[in-house]
Every structure is written in C-alpha cells, then in structure tokens.
Design brief:
There is one protein chain. By secondary structure, this protein is α/β, with parallel strands linked by helices. Helices cover about 20% and strands about 30% of the residues. The protein is built from six helices and 18 strands. The strands form three sheets. It has a seven-stranded mixed β-sheet. A seven-stranded mixed β-sheet has the order 9-10-13-14-15-16-17, with helices on one face.
Length: about 260
C-alpha cells in the first residue's frame, strides 16, 4: 500500500499548497481511494503536481462532517465523473466551533446523487471497511469538547456520531485511517488494535508539557502500533509524543508518500 498526503497544514515543497485540513490518497493492492478533501480544491492541484490522477479514483471517503476534511468535496465531484463518496448518515449535521462559527459542510451538496450515506458498519469489499464505533463504550476521554452541533434550536455538545474510520486489512496488517480522532485516539486503539494508525489525533489544545498528553503518549507507546500523524495533532504536541515514541511516530506533511 502507498499513501500520499495531498493536503495538510504544512508542506514539504514550495510547489505544493498547504492549508488547515487533510486529504490522503491511497493505493491498496486493488483500489485507488481518496480519503478526505481538505477545505478547498487545492488538494486536487497538489495531486496533479504529484502525478496523481484523481479522475481515476474508484471511490472517496469523508471521515467526518467538518469543512477542513470535506470542503473540497465539490471539486472532487467536478473532477471525477464516476466515483461514489461514502460518508456517514450524520455527516451533514450543522457543526459549530463556539456559538457562531459554522464548521460543517456545504448543505447544498447533500442531495448529490453520488453521495452514499452509510450506517455504523459498512463493507467496501476486499478487506476495506468503514466503522463509527458509535455503539462502543469510550473508556478514555474524547477530544473536541469545544465543538457542538445545532439541534432542536440549541447548541449541544458534538458526540461525533458523524465520524467514521477506514479500516484496511492487507497482507496481514490492520491499517486504520482517522481524519481527526475526535472520539479519542486512545479509544481508537482500544477498539481496533491496529498495526498502523494514520491521521490526526486532535491533541492540539493540550499542554505539550502537561500530564494529560504524557498519559496519552504512554498509552500510545504501550500499544505497539506504528503511527503516522498530522493536522490537528499539533506541532508542539507531536514533538512531545515523539520524545516518547521515537521512530514509531512520523509526521505527514503535504507531498509526503509512505509505503506500507
């Protein structure tokens, strides 16, 4: 499997754009998959510069309903004429950061016929599966308490029912893709026990020198999982975790390609 970072907060090349967001392109043994679209169409431009033809992607997955992961959805639908997009049935919930800042998706896209709304477990075939784990207990603290959804005329805490994860089982490995891990990176380890975990950890609000981040780092260290992280993990938090995890933790910036 090969994974390219099409969009991330940072860029490893002056020729590639960076923005607060995430977009990954996966080539498994049998499939070509887009995972998230960043916040604009810039992921498509970066793909072209990297020699990746997203018009040939067989399907796309949106990890959750925030603009920085699904803001480029319209660009994908325009550039790729056939690929279905799989997203959770809660993905178009009106998501907010604070009472006034809307961070959800473009509601005008909700009726697009190529959007496939799926439930808590959905098989994509050939060792590929989407899961939300909405029915699972969360033994560890979730991240993102400052975020909400507008429901019944009020802002209520976002439980991230719209967040789903892509599990790839290939060549004896369990590889988990997570956009932001809002339900808690430690909960993901508890639920999936992956060999490799790729995505944002949503730890950028934690004190890099604090006890909470240290305890999370210890759980990650004890798991035996190999981590590739980016985006909402936070640079200072990444450095703190790196001191605990060493070479088992790698930062993904725009343009980077890894092979598993």
């Amino acid at each position: 499997m090969r994974i390219w970072t099409l969009m991330e907060n940072t860029s490893g090349s002056a020729a590639l754009k960076a923005e607060h967001g995430l977009s990954l392109y996966l080539e498994t043994g049998t499939k070509r998959i887009l995972f998230d679209t960043g916040q604009s169409g810039a992921f498509w431009e970066n793909a072209e510069k990297l020699g990746i033809d997203l018009a040939q992607a067989e399907f796309a997955v949106l990890s959750h309903g925030h603009y920085d992961h699904g803001g480029g959805l319209r660009r994908f639908l325009e550039g790729n004429s056939h690929a279905p997009v799989y997203l959770n049935r809660h993905t178009f919930l009106p998501c907010y950061h604070g009472p006034d800042r809307y961070i959800g998706l473009d509601q005008d896209l909700k009726s697009q016929p190529r959007l496939h709304f799926v439930d808590d477990v959905f098989s994509l075939g050939e060792g590929l599966e989407l899961r939300t784990c909405n029915d699972r207990q969360r033994p560890y603290q979730s991240q993102g308490g400052e975020l909400s959804v507008f429901s019944g005329g009020n802002h209520v805490p976002d439980l991230f029912l719209h967040e789903q994860y892509l599990l790839v089982e290939e060549e004896g490995k369990r590889i988990l893709f997570s956009g932001c891990s809002h339900k808690g990176i430690c909960n993901l380890l508890h639920w999936f026990s992956p060999d490799v975990l790729i995505g944002g950890f949503h730890l950028n609000k934690l004190d890099p020198k604090g006890q909470e981040l240290y305890e999370i780092g210890q759980i990650l260290k004890e798991s035996g999982t190999r981590f590739y992280t980016c985006h909402c993990t936070g640079q200072a938090q990444y450095e703190a975790l790196s001191s605990l995890l060493g070479q088992r933790l790698t930062y993904l910036s725009t343009g980077m390609c890894i092979e598993l």
